[in-house]
Amino acid sequence: MDNVSSITGEVTVDSETADVIDHDVTTITCVCGNTVSKEGLIQANSQGVPVHLGDTTPVPAGLAEWPPDEDLHTLCPSCGRVYRDSVIEETGTAPVAFRVDVTAVPIAEAIRVHWNLSAQD
Length: 121
Description:
Helix content: 10-25%
Radius of gyration: 14 Å
Distance between the termini: 43 Å
Number of strands: 8
Order of helices and strands: EEEEEEEHEH
Structural class: alpha+beta
């Protein structure tokens, strides 16, 4: 049971690893080839939903709140692979934690909201 879907649409994947330089989550090259500088990688929560860090602004509809425990993940919006930031920072490796369907709600909507907000910055 390497790939098991849960009720949230997550798929556990334990045999894929992205490239990463040192222990820096901003240097991930996703298994699909996406990077921060290509189609972007997005900080997400433990369900793979993009998060919003707004100390003074409310969380926009569609995005998740920044996790209070700093349990951050990195989502590839191209393929849906999700990496756990703490593993990358601790080990210098980037195994795929799980995958989400980037074409289905709520992930697709959250990605759209994230990019719309990023375009305004």
